[in-house]
Amino acid sequence: MADPMRIRAVAKDGATSVKILMAHEMETGQRKDGAGKPIPAHFIQQISATWQGKVVLSANWGTAIAKNPFLEFSFKGGQKGEKIQVTWTDNKGDKRTDEATIN
Amino acid sequence: MNKTRRNVLKAGGGATLYALLAAAGMLLPEAALAADWNQKAFEAKNLKDALGALGAGNPANSDAIFITAPEIAENGAVVPVAAMSKLPGTESIAFLIAKNPTALAASFDIPAGTEPGVSTRIKMAETSDVYVLVKAQGKYYVAKKEIKVTIGGCGG
Hints:
The complex is a heterodimer of chains A (103) and B (156). Chain A has no helices and seven strands. Chain A has 103 residues and is mainly β. In chain A, the strands form two sheets. In chain A, strands 4-3-6-7 form a four-stranded antiparallel beta sheet, with no helix packed on it. Chain A starts with 5 loop residues before the first strand and ends with a strand. Chain B has two domains: 2-34, no CATH class; 39-151, Sandwich (Immunoglobulin-like). In chain B, helix 1 (2-11) runs antiparallel to helix 2. Chain B is globular and about 40 Å long. Chain B starts with a helix and ends in a 5-residue tail after the last strand. The chains are: A mainly beta (103), B alpha+beta (156). The interface between A and B is large, with 37 and 45 residues. Strand 4 of chain A pairs antiparallel with strand 6 of chain B, so a sheet runs across the interface.
């Protein structure tokens, strides 16, 4: 199981800004190991963030997102104390959901 | 998410129940996303094929798309990029790196109420133009910025 995400959500002036740091290798499949064998691709393909049951951002990713992906965005609304959930799914079917409270 | 489902269950009755459940299923992010990953676009080897697979064809150049990225990235493995669209009705923002082994890096869907701007970090194999493709009101627009890379991020 992958390590938890670090999620920071801050409400200010009627909008909530969200910063997410995921723990993932994001292996491209282009690299070779010491013995010259290709290292299989292993990367997050899909991510979505929800607030109050509403999807506020979703994305599809390829292999060119950097290791331990960072993502920042903001949406209108959101109050201190409300929760947001972030879920990612990788190409091996591994999945992780984490929740954060808006500050 | 569960709340929505409960409401739907309460509201649904008889023959309409299945239809409502199906509609609710469509709203779940996992379900909505599962079918979405565009393999053809993500495996396209060059910019033109990736744009084609996204259905973007020949996007119009736009000066209402702003790309924030370094002129020179010392390490191609971690290149911070941000894109902001001032185009009304922005629906999606995608990042494409012309000279990467596969051009398409990411595609973000921007629902109503979400700011049409995202920041992330990408990998770049070599110095390249980075394209930001924006879909707004059903049409595609593009802007680009060259980022010079001193050490590639896809070696090995």
